[in-house]
Write a structure and sequence with these properties.
The protein has no helices and 5 strands. It is an all-beta fold. The strands form 2 sheets. A 3-stranded antiparallel β-sheet has the order 3-4-5, with no helix packed on it. Strands 1-2 form a two-stranded antiparallel sheet. A hairpin with a 5-residue loop joins strand 4 and strand 5.
Length: 60
Amino acid sequence: MLESVSVTCPYCFETVEIHLEADVSGSLVYDCEVCCHPWQLTVRRDRDGELAVRVERLAE
């Protein structure tokens, strides 16, 4: 099952919808669909399975 989350690109500031598998957690690299810059996603889940996603620029 996929979960959809709307996030804001830290480069172009466009809102992008990403789709994550229900069991995904940890850090991932994702390329913006609008400007193609890569970002780091940090995906966490609480005890109830609630999803929290943080988006950051990759360290250069």
